[in-house]
Design a protein that fits this description.
mainly alpha, DNA polymerase, domain 1, hpI Integrase, Chain A, 3 domains, about 50% helix, about 0% strand
Amino acid sequence: MNECGGTAVGKPAGDGQAEGHGVEHRPQPTEKTTPQQVAWLIADGAGHTCIKQHYIPMAGHVLGYHLQPHEHLNLASDLERALDLLRAKQVGEGWLIMGQHALTRFCRFMQTERGFTPQLVTFKQANVTHYHDGLPGWLVEQLTQLQHIRQANWRPSRLNEAILRFWSVHTRLWRWLFAHEDIQAISDIKRAHLFAYIDERLDAGYTAKSVNQELRAFQATLYFLQERDFAVPRALLRLPGLKEPDSLPRFLTDEQVGRLQADLEQRVAQADSATGQRNALLDRAAFYLLWQGGLRLGEAEELRLDDLNLAQKQLLIRQGKGRKDRAVYLTDRAIAALQAYLTVRGNGASVSLPAQAGEQRFPARPHQGGGGTNRGEGNAAPAAPHLCHAAGQCGLQNHHDSGAVGAPAYQHHSDLRPRP
């Protein structure tokens, strides 16, 4: 059984000729099956780039490799040979992963063609084993337990991202200690070791904020270990952080929001394909939800169809900040943008607002890593990750515009920055 749950259907792989039927059972050319599969992929929520670069080529590998009609393909074994072809070409790991996803979707397409109910695409959890390198087993075990405890408060749509961020931040200082110092137990760690780490990070160009984040994660792990009866030197828990400069206001001006709005409207008007039109409409709907609805990015990603009440112009936010539900009232512009997207959404099996569960068409948050430099100055179009915070600032400062939400709609927010 392969990843999509397919089972053997029809005859096993043979020489491509069904006895007594001549050439009628020779494999069909790939291009004859492409339009039908493309239409199915679009309805299933696939993006144009993935369809062109991965899904159709992998289907072509399968159909071209096996000299038999596609109705006779063994979905449990025949599809895997296409991956062998990619390995023989020595493509990168990323292409192999996308090839596997492409085969999963092709398997689901074939199941649909054969009258079966296909299963949803499931993606593997984040691989964090490389963060274990150089760490003792007892520490990996304790960090895994800490991750599972923290994980209860992470949004499902950002689970893999949160897991990777957790292991990256919480192991960075530990891995440095075990690589540069003779550490056998927690009691061997000295404040001088931590000062040396801080100096090295600052010399490498990392900001005080990034270093403080790593120190806080390190101390959080120490407190966790202390609760589990590990002997932790108190001096390590009292290490003060570095002084950080005052952060600049994080909001967009009315002119910047207007340019971003115009750019999204232009993408809708200039979309030259069904997939491009659907994605542009989804991006525009997300923009109005973030701007005029005050949603955080993770909240927009996890919207479900049954959360929308278009007749009452109301949207239910489940498990928002503080794990609390709340209702948001939508403007006429946001309602119109949602209705325009829903007409082309497709018939994906998911009940989430994007047609395919896990589809991340909403703007992704930038990686909060080292360096700490801000980019995007000048006249470039403002980046979308700060739209939630920008919307709150625009609503509180200037709500005279007929399309903007007034200040009362934002009073329940104490921090409008997008969070996972």
